[in-house]
Amino acid sequence: MIPETDALAALLVAMMRAATPLAFAALGELITEKSGVLNLGVEGMMVMGAVSAFMVVVATGNPALAMLAAAVVGLLMAALFGALTLGLLTNQVATGLALTIFGIGLSAFIGQGYVGTPIEPLARLSIPGLSTLPLIGPVLFGHDAMVYLSLAAAFGLWWFLTRTRAGLVLRAVGENPAAAHSIGYPVRLIRFGAVLFGGAMCGLGGAYLSLAYTPMWVEEMTAGRGWIALALVVFATWKPGRVLLGAYLFGGVTIVQLHIQGAGVAVPSQVLSMLPYLATILVLVLISRDATRIRLNAPASIGKTFHPGG
Amino acid sequence: MIRLEARGHAAAGWVYGAPVLAVGLTLVFGAALFAALGFDPLEALGVFFLSPLNSAYGIAELAVKATPLALCAVGLAIGFRGNVWNIGAEGQLVMGAVAGGGVALALYDVDGWFVLPLMMVAGMLGGMAWGAIPAFLKTRFHTSEILVSLMLTYVAALALSWLVHGPWRDPEGFNFPESRLFHDAATLPILWEGTRLHLGAAFALAAVVGAWFVVARTFIGFQVKVLGMTPQAGGYAGFSQKWVVWLAFMVSGGLAGLSGIVEVAGPIGQLQPTVSPGYGFTAIIVAFLGRLHPVGILLAALLMALSYLGGEAVQIGLGLPLAVTGVFQGMLLFFLLACDILIRYRVRLGGKRRREVPS
After folding, report:
1. Per-residue pLDDT tens digits of chain B, which is 359 residues long
2. What is the DSSP letter of A134?
């Protein structure tokens, strides 16, 4: 039975790896949206995270530094978005789109010399005795650090949102900014913080793509994952645990279609590659069908500009 | 300390001043970017913005590139006015190319005046069909039209890739993933000998004039505007959000589809794995830069077309990556959105901060 459990373990591991970039980005966007801000620039922040992580790891060989750089670059991109939407009260949808267009262009621009450069993929954990156990060894103890970090982030954010006072304030700002402002909370500052956190997480999601999932840099390597992450937040009805579940589901769809392609089934590879995008539409339809459910869970002020001076 | 003071009314001057200021700021930051890369900023800006226009061919190319941008943006602007966010024009463009190109390939042996009009209609229908999916899901299931239209862009690109790699590949094409070259009967006539300026540019102009008429002179334009500003008011007046969603997606999908078939029946002349360098996305910038107004869109489309030509010019002239186009486009949209604040607010520098008294 060993070969079968090995194959299953490989499948699960691949699924978790495919899910990790989505989990990072969607968890970050979830916090941003909880504060009432919709940032459609996820794709742009991810792709900038991917290119900056790759450039740093080529220059220094230090993956931790590369992750840090990706988070900082994602944060800076988000700061640009925050300054525009919160400071200059620009339309959030249009500004987010601008961030994506800008990020894709800028990353291709600065990463031009790095296409085709090989790097060492992110090291995987290896605990003697545990990592070699059949099935649970690779699935539980055989990942790289970022997979565990994404799991910890999902748990930490759940705890933050539901169990801490700061989480409550964040939710209040997203539900009713006017009320939060009237009792003295600095609405725009809190929103700015949430936007920055979202950007850093998107940067990390991008870093996972270029450091571990496919350890290389190519233009637009995010291939719509930022948009899928945005869809995941809706699918998860703004709950961290369900974001993780959704990300794993999508990781599963991605890996299964790759395996079918690899097995040489007589379906064109392009048709199989459509599956993650079609699956996104399908889950969006299933979840949005129930309008009340979305209304009850979505932050009430999402996407609306708030300016205390009127 | 920078403070924002509400004007209480929109400043008409800045409605038109903001795009000009944004273009100016983009030039300044573009010069800084070129300087940071070690180029003489003025010379580099000259290569980017002026050198593409110093020949008749270059000016015709400007119109060729502005054509799909204007076609897509005119349609998108109608939706944006009504708060309907179709950001999948790129996908609708591709499906228009597929549907219209499919007609051209099906009628490969037919030589008749009707082939070209049939292709154009098929292209529009293809774009409309692709736009109908997010419209239907939005109106029936409240699904976000932003995400659905965007996801369908990837699906459309994969569908085109499959067709030109598989069933529609040129049988005499040495296995290149390209369709047969369209016959003369299936190619748009050239308007200006010696250039690539084709009949599609006239379609774009017609779309601009038509959109201007609809927006400014008809009840439909009024309905869209009202629903964009206050959805409830529209409801009371008896025209619904659903109607505007369908209208926006049918018009923008149809025009994006038309731009797709115009591209393949015009400058490209066959179906290829990629038929657009992101015109459908750039059209979003064009729509905003043009103030969602048809005439503004025409000017904005020409400017954005120049950013594509400029990107090619600095690639050849200075050895910079083509992606510099995207950098300029993104910067321009940022600055435009930021400058728009001047329409509704005064920006005050310094001064003591007024204590905000709850009224």
Report:
1. 567 777 777 777 888 888 889 999 999 999 998 898 888 999 999 999 899 998 889 999 999 999 999 999 999 998 888 889 999 999 999 999 999 999 999 999 888 899 999 999 999 999 999 999 999 999 999 998 999 999 999 999 999 999 999 899 998 888 889 999 998 888 898 888 888 889 999 999 999 999 888 877 777 777 777 777 766 666 666 667 888 899 999 999 999 999 999 999 999 999 999 999 889 999 998 998 888 889 999 999 999 999 999 989 988 888 888 888 888 888 888 898 888 888 878 877 765 555 555 54
2. T
Give me A221's structure tokens. Answer: 């390597």
Instruction: Judge whether A90 and A113 are in contact, CB under 8 Å.
Output: no
Nearest to B18 by CA among A232, A271, A90, A257: A90
Q: Which of A178, A190, A153 is nearest to A24 (CA)?
A: A153
**CA angle at B8 for the pair B5 and B10, rounded to the nearest 5°:** 100
Q: Give the span between the Cα atoms of B354 and A78, in whole angstroms.
A: 29
Closest CA to A93 of B18, B30, B228: B228
Paired with B6 in beta bridges are B345
CB–CB of B338 and A90 under 8 A?
yes
Torsion of Cα atoms, B40 then B45 then B46 then B48, to 10°? 130
Instruction: Give the span between the Cα atoms of B243 and A6, in whole angstroms.
Output: 54
Residues of B in contact with A97 (CB under 8 A): 87, 284, 333
Q: CA A39, CA A92: separation in Å to the nearest integer? A: 7
Contact assignment for B151 to A280 by CB distance below 8 Å: yes
- How many folded domains does chain B comprise? 1
Tokens of B268: 């490209």
Neighboring chain A residues of B341 at a CB cutoff of 8 Å = 88-90
CATH of the domain at B262: 1.10.3470
Is residue B355 assigned to a domain? no
- Which amino acid does the sequence have at A2? I
From the candidate CATH numbers 1.10.3470, 4.10.280, 2.60.40, 3.30.70, the one assigned to the domain spanning A17-116+131-297:
1.10.3470
A37 touches chain B (CB under 8 A): no
- The parent domain of residue B313 ranges over 2-349
DSSP B346: E
